[in-house]
Amino acid sequence: MISGHLLSTADLTKQEALNLLSTAKELAAITDGPNKKLPTLRGKTVVNLFFEDSTRTRISFETAAKRLSADVINFSAKGSSVSKGESLKDTAQTLQAMGADAVVIRHGSSGAAKRLADTQWIQAAIINAGDGTHEHPTQALLDAFTIKQHLRSDQEDLTGVKVLIVGDILHSRVARSNVILLTKLGAQITLVAPPTLLPVGVNEWPVKISYDLDSEIENCDVVMMLRIQLERMADSFFPTEREYSRRYGLNSARLSKLSKNAIVMHPGPMNRGLEISAESADDLKSVIIDQVKNGVAVRMAVLYELLGGAQIGETK
Amino acid sequence: MIKINNAKLTDNSLVDLEINNGVISKLSKSSGKQTDGIDATGKLLLPGLVDLHTHLREPGREDSETVLTGSQAAVAGGYTAISSMANTNPVADTAGVVEQIYRLGKEAGLCDVNPIGAVTKGLNGEQLAELGAMADSIAGVRIFSDDGKCVSDPLIMRRALEYVKTFNGIIAQHAQEPRLTINAQMNEGSVSARIGLPGWPAIAEEAIIARDILLAEHVQSRLHICHLTTAGGVELVRWAKQRGIQVTAEVTPHHLLLTDDLVENYDPIYKVNPPLRTQKDVMALREGLAEGIIDIVATDHAPHPAEDKDCEWQAAAFGMVGLETAFSVVVKTMIESKLMSWTDLVDRMSIKPAQIAGYKQQGQVFAENSPANLILVDTAGSWQVERNNLKSKSKNTPFEGMNLPAVISDVIYNGKLVLSNRAIVNGNHG
Q1: Given CB atoms, is B266 within the 8 Å cutoff of chain A?
Q2: Domain A137-287 class?
Q3: Neighbouring residues of A293: CB distance < 8 A, sequence distance ≥ 6
Q4: Which architecture characterizes domain B2-45+369-424 according to CATH?
Q5: Beta strand residue intervals within B354-415, DSSP E
Q6: Rounded distance, CA B419 to CA B429, Å?
Q7: How do residues A159-202 score in pLDDT, each as one tens digit?
Q8: Are B312 and A88 in contact (CB < 8 Å)?
Q9: pTM score, two decimals?
Q10: Domain boundaries B47-357, CATH class
Q11: Residue ranges of the domains in chain B?
Q12: Domain boundaries A2-136+292-308, corresponding CATH code
C-alpha cells in the first residue's frame, strides 16, 4: 500500500486493491465463525478521529479494529478541545504523543487526511474515512467487494460490470472514490445527475454522463443511489425535493425496469422516500445491508495491511 | 553624496552617476575608472520598482507584517514605492488611518509607503468611505480599493467611479462576483473536480471585469483591475482598451508562474485569492503583459503567520508574500522566455505603476535632476529562495527552494543607499 497510508483510491494499484478485497474475504470468513476475534493487532492503538458526525462509519471502523484486538480510542471533535478552537496540527501532535499507531480520520475539509500524512505532525498510519467532498476510499472498497460478491464472485475483477451512480456527484466523496476504484477494476460507470450536481470538469473523468435516469436504468448491473442533502435545495441545486425524487429517485417503477440480476446499493444513511423508495431499499435486489456488513471486513483488511500482517496481501 | 561607477543602462550604454540631495546630480558616460563609490561593473541600473498592491497588516495584525518589516521586504525586492491595501484593522477608510500608515512609512524611511483607501466604509460594500478626506489628507490618497472584497453592488461601484473623478482618483477593483464564489477554494476546473474543493470559476472574475469596464465607460472614469488571472479577462481588457475606455490592469508574479495543479497536495501555501489558474491562463497573462494589455505587475504581497498556513486547506488563509521574489519571477517568466525586454520590464514594474498612481517621484527615466530612486541588478546572478532569509515577517512564499534569476544588490531611495550588497542599510531604524 502506498507509503503506509490509505488516503485515496487513486493511490492503490489494481493489484493492491484486489489483494485488499481478497484479504477482506478471508477475514470475513473467519469472523463469520463462532469466535469473531483475531489477535493480530493486539497492543496496537487505533484512533477514530471524527470531526464530522458519522456514527455508521465510526462504529464500522471500531468494530473492525476490535475484531483485530486493537485498542480503540474514539475522538469526536464535538465537546472536545477541537470545539474550543484547537487546530488539526495540535490534535495530531497530541495523538502522536499518546502513541497512536493508526488514525482513522473523518474531516469536513477536502485533503485533511493527506495533510496529516504529508506533514510531520504525526507518524501514524492515516486512513481517510471521508475528507470533505474529496474521497471515502474504504466505502469504495466495500462497494467493490459487494459488487464482486454478488456479480463477479468467480472472476478476477469487475470487468464489464455496468454501474450507475445516481445523485449528488458534485459533493460526493463516495462517487469520487468509486469512479476511480471501480474503473480501475474494469467496471463501466455512468453518472446520472442533474447538471447542477455534476462538477465542472467531470467531462475529463473516465465515465459516461447522463441527466436522465430513465434512459439508463434498464441497462445496468448496479444502481448506486447517493444520499441527497436537503440543504442543497436551499442553494438551488434543484427546485424541490419532490421534483428531485420524481426525476432521480429510485421508485418502484424504475426498480421494475432493472435487469434480473441487477443490484441496488446505497452508502447510507438513506432518505427513504427521497432518493430511494422504501420498496427499493427493502427489495431483494437491495444489497444495502451487505454493504454495511462488508464494510467491517474491508476495514479490517485495511487495518490489517497497514498495521499488521504482511502475510496476507501486499506488504506496505 | 553617492557615486555609482560603470553601471549599464537598458540600452547597454555604460554610465557614471553622482547623487546629491535626493536627485541625480551628475550623469555621464562611464569613464571606465573606479574612483570611490559603488562599483557597478556588470550590473544593470534600473529605476526603483513601484508596487500598487501590498498588504502591510499594520494597524491590526502586526504579528504578520508591519509597515517597517514590509518596507524592508520591499527594499530587498528592489521597490522604492509600495501601496498599502486598505484591509487593515481598523480599515483604512478614514483620513486618520491613512495618515497613520503614511507616517509609519516615513518613520521607516526605506521606501515610499502610499496608503490605498477603502472604497466603502469598513469594506462593507454598502456606504462610500470618506474618499475626499483621504484624498485631501497628507497621505494624498488617489487609489481606492476594497481589495479582499469585491465592490459587488453595481450602484456603489458606479458612484465610487464617478466620485473619485473630482481628484483624479482611480478605483482598483478586486473582481470577484460573491454569489458565484461562495466558499470557493481554488480554480474551478478539472483539478477542483478531481480533488473535491469548491471551485472559484473564471467567470466570477470576468463578469465583474466586464460590468466595471462598461460602468467606467459610462461615467468616463478610471478603473484599475487588480490581480487579473484569466485568459478571458485579458480579452475583456483588450476590448476595453480598443474602445478607449480608461482601464488598466495588473498581474501578480505568482499568476505568471504557478498553476492550479499545485493544489493537488492540499498544501495551503498555494492557497491564494484569486486562485492559481491553468497553464492556458498563465500563457495568456504573459502575452497580455508583454503586449501591454496588462499594464503592470503588482505583488499582492499578502503576509500570514505560520499557523494560518500550517493547517488543513479550508482552514488556511488566502495569500502569498511576494515583494522579495516579484522581480526575479518576472525576469524568469518574461525576460528569460524572451517575451519582454528589460525596457518593457521597467515600464511594467516602475514607470506605468507610477503613472497610474500619480507617484511623481517614482518611475523616472534617468536624467540629471531626476529623483534618485534606483536599483542595481546583477542580471547574470541567481539566488535560491529560502523562506527564513526573507525580510518579511511572514514566510508564506510559494517559491521556497526555487532558484531564481537576477539578484538585486543595491537600492537607492530618495538619494539614500538603503540596500547595499543585499543588506538593508540606513533607513530610520538602522
Answers
A1: yes
A2: alpha beta
A3: none
A4: Roll (2.30)
A5: 374-384, 403-413
A6: 13
A7: 999 999 999 999 999 999 999 999 999 999 999 999 999 999 99
A8: yes
A9: 0.94
A10: alpha beta
A11: 2-45+369-424, 47-357
A12: 3.40.50.1370
